[in-house]
């Protein structure tokens, strides 16, 4: 059943359905009571003292806190990467992360890779930290192969019951999920941090010891950083006050100070990233059009800076050579800080910084997709103006179309009437506001990507009708 619950939840994480999470939560809640009773009965039978029930008895948590969670009636140990067994009671006094993941889901593999780095860095300085893998792998071979990449402990694959009850206890709705437990006495549930995945991505080792106090402190620091944000402290540091640019003789240095007062796009991207390969040419074309329009007015107030997450210098060099704009040096330490500062959750990602050095939007990619060069200078006022224009243009669109690539009718929807952020099934890019949506199966496309056909003979009626009615703009 765990497998099933995870599968449903993963669908939800991809935005495929919102009902699955609800259903899986229902299943978890219904069975919770029974498990509590069973665990407690088993403990009494074993003659162990029941100190904390599953809901965390406030006021008294015993030294066997982790035993209640991680051991079973006939197992008091966890697996370790060396193959030896580690007693559950050895965890007492430590901050423990429960990693719910499975090898069959790529985001789990990606997160595990990041977590291994954080774990090794932490273990070298803090002995009071441990991670326990709670697997949703489909079989023992899959478990063995995935666990083989992890340097921490694990619940044996065969112990379905413990894995299920942990998943229920912490309402695990999707994977990867990292639950962080504090060793403190008396406030088990209050102190539990459930958004470990986000915290690891955002703060890395800095998030340790994952207490609410530490997290408050980090969020406070974030606020201060945002308030004091300037282009110079974003892009430069005490060792480097320049970014790179192409020149006839290779790369040259451009002082960060010379960019102050301009609108700057920070483009997070990498050569290995498939969606980036689609978005980069689009951004180049938009960049060149904006630069041309500005040059015609005698201005040069716009720049883009590549923030690369390429894996080696050679890929960076080859990728950057295709781009007409500036770049941070490959592997620069500021890259990590910028990823955290702007909460970059996936690439391609485009942040727009205004002439005052403050963030205008972290959703530059959607604005480019929706409005191309017309989005410049990306301000709220400009976006509102474009939205109104879009609204007007949408009035001219048919409310129902039959699209060449789909077997059901598609309805015109907008933010207010059934629409919302989506991924276009034709061009794979993000969209928001107006869309053509299939009410039967959720298929959704940009109005500009629709190819309306006659339902009966499949003749293309109008090729790309929005662009033909509003040349150069389009929805
Ligand atoms: Zn599209
Ligand atoms: Zn459909």
TrEMBL record:
<dbReference type="InterPro" id="IPR002219">
    <property type="entry name" value="PKC_DAG/PE"/>
</dbReference>
<keyword id="KW-0862">Zinc</keyword>
<keyword id="KW-0479">Metal-binding</keyword>
<keyword id="KW-0520">NAD</keyword>
<keyword id="KW-0560">Oxidoreductase</keyword>
<feature type="domain" description="Thioredoxin">
    <location>
        <begin position="220"/>
        <end position="395"/>
    </location>
</feature>
<dbReference type="Pfam" id="PF03107">
    <property type="entry name" value="C1_2"/>
</dbReference>
<comment type="similarity">
    <text>Belongs to the nucleoredoxin family.</text>
</comment>
<dbReference type="InterPro" id="IPR036249">
    <property type="entry name" value="Thioredoxin-like_sf"/>
</dbReference>
<protein>
    <recommendedName>
        <fullName>protein-disulfide reductase</fullName>
        <ecNumber>1.8.1.8</ecNumber>
    </recommendedName>
</protein>
<feature type="domain" description="Phorbol-ester/DAG-type">
    <location>
        <begin position="405"/>
        <end position="457"/>
    </location>
</feature>
<dbReference type="InterPro" id="IPR045870">
    <property type="entry name" value="TryX_NRX_thioredoxin_dom"/>
</dbReference>
<dbReference type="InterPro" id="IPR046349">
    <property type="entry name" value="C1-like_sf"/>
</dbReference>
<dbReference type="InterPro" id="IPR012336">
    <property type="entry name" value="Thioredoxin-like_fold"/>
</dbReference>
<dbReference type="Pfam" id="PF13905">
    <property type="entry name" value="Thioredoxin_8"/>
</dbReference>
<dbReference type="InterPro" id="IPR013766">
    <property type="entry name" value="Thioredoxin_domain"/>
</dbReference>
<keyword id="KW-0677">Repeat</keyword>
<dbReference type="InterPro" id="IPR004146">
    <property type="entry name" value="DC1"/>
</dbReference>
<dbReference type="InterPro" id="IPR052259">
    <property type="entry name" value="Nucleoredoxin-like"/>
</dbReference>
<dbReference type="GO" id="GO:0047134">
    <property type="term" value="F:protein-disulfide reductase [NAD(P)H] activity"/>
</dbReference>
<feature type="domain" description="Thioredoxin">
    <location>
        <begin position="68"/>
        <end position="202"/>
    </location>
</feature>
<dbReference type="GO" id="GO:0046872">
    <property type="term" value="F:metal ion binding"/>
</dbReference>
């Amino acid at each position: 059943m765990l497998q099933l619950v995870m599968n449903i939840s993963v669908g939800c994480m991809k935005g495929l359905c919102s009902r699955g999470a609800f259903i899986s939560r229902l299943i978890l809640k219904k069975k919770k009571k029974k498990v509590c009773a069973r665990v407690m009965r088993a403990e009494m039978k074993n003659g162990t003292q029941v100190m904390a029930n599953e809901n965390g008895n406030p006021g008294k948590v015993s030294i066997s806190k982790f035993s209640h969670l991680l051991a079973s009636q006939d197992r008091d140990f966890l697996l370790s990467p060396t193959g030896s067994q580690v007693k559950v009671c050895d965890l007492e006094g430590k901050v423990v992360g429960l990693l719910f993941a499975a090898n069959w889901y790529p985001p789990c593999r990606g997160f595990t890779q990041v977590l291994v780095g954080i774990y090794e860095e932490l273990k070298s300085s803090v002995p009071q930290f441990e991670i326990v893998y709670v697997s949703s792998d489909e079989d023992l071979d899959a478990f063995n192969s995935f666990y083989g990449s992890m340097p921490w402990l694990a619940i044996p694959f065969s112990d379905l019951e413990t894995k299920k009850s942990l998943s229920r206890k912490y309402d695990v709705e999707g994977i990867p999920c990292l639950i962080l437990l504090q060793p403190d006495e008396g406030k088990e549930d209050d102190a539990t941090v459930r958004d470990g995945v986000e915290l690891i991505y955002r703060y890395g080792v800095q998030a340790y010891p994952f207490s609410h106090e530490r997290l408050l402190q980090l969020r406070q620091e974030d606020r201060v950083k945002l308030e004091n944000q300037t282009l110079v402290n974003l892009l430069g540091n005490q060792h480097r006050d320049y970014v790179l640019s192409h020149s006839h003789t290779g790369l040259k240095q451009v002082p960060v100070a010379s960019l102050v007062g301009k609108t700057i796009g920070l483009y997070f991207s990498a050569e290995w990233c498939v969606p980036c390969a689609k978005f980069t040419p689009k951004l180049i074309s938009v960049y060149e059009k904006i630069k041309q329009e500005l040059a015609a007015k005698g201005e040069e107030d716009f720049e883009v800076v590549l923030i690369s997450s390429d894996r080696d210098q050679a890929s960076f060099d080859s990728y950057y050579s295709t781009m007409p704009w500036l770049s941070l040096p490959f592997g620069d330490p500021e890259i990590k800080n910028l990823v955290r500062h702007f909460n970059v959750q996936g690439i391609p990602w485009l942040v727009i910084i205004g002439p005052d050095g403050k963030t205008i939007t972290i959703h530059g990619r959607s604005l480019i997709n929706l409005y191309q060069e017309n989005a410049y200078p990306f301000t709220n006022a400009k976006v509102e103006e474009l939205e109104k224009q879009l609204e007007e243009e949408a009035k001219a669109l048919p409310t129902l179309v039959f699209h060449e690539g789909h077997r059901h009718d598609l309805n015109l929807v907008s933010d207010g009437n059934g629409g919302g952020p989506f991924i276009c099934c034709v061009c794979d890019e993000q969209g928001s506001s107006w869309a053509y949506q299939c009410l039967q199966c959720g298929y959704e496309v940009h109005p500009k990507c629709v190819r309306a056909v006659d339902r009966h003979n499949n003749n293309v009626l109008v090729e790309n009708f929005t662009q033909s009615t509003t040349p150069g703009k389009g929805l």
